[in-house]
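Quick illustration, no need to memorize.
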Amino acid sequence: MKAVKIAAHAVITALVVSGVQAAALKPLPPKPSAADIIKESKAADWRALDPENTLYMDLPAGRVVIELAPTFAPNHAANIKALAREHYFDGLAILRSQDNFVVQWGDPDEKNPREPKQAKKTLKGEFTVPMKSDSGFTRLKDVDGYAPQVGHSNGFPVGRDPKTGETWLAHCYAMVGVGRDTDADSGGGTALYVVTGQAPRQLDRNITVVGRVVSGMPLLSTVARGPAPMGFFDKPEMQVPIKAFRVAADLPEAERNKFEVMRTESTTYQKVVEAQRNRGGPWTKVAAGHIDLCNAPIPVREVK
């Protein structure tokens, strides 16, 4: 008799689970996709890159375009532009590509590294800034494991803590940071890296983050992985040479790339995020109802 009851209970449980699964796989109603919303966006939903805060890194395979974020790292942003203007990076190289982590560039000669002429070699770390310095923050409603609040500020992923009154740029894919040694103030911009793997958010508030690659990530994310520890290249021929590293404002108009970033404070962008958070059918069977800060797309378009 007991065995019969157990068997009956198992059947009921299986039916309940089956019913839940069937309900979960019930076709979701169609909704506009993020691509649909972006396509219908208005001119006012976009902003042009500021040439004074845009960097071009020219590699043999093409150009990488970086937007600086002086609101979050004003001293480092200014110093990196000073390095660019004295042609510090020209002729240096991508010297490290670590799988699922970062690609780094700078001077591969550790024994006799190139010295800046006018720019500074090191600066005090700018890991966080006061929240009052950032007036453009738009919060995501989603819970985050690395910050009490997350969202976007003028096209950059941001974390912040109202208790400490601090805000900072997050280590999402394509974000650019400043390499340093153990000393918090040992970086200055002569060594830079870009996140090419799963967002290493554990680095937030431990390294100065200065901006984001808005174009050219395939040129960096596909660099062959280095065989030495931490992905460093152990042979000079593995390095990717930097042909030129310039501030966009210093180039003639005809030599500049015209990019626009969607305004992350706009209503249209909030619709883009919601479309990613709760995708409609018919392909999607289960809407996530959640979005991670580093999975919220920040649309960029080139204007011909």
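The radius of gyration is 23 Å.
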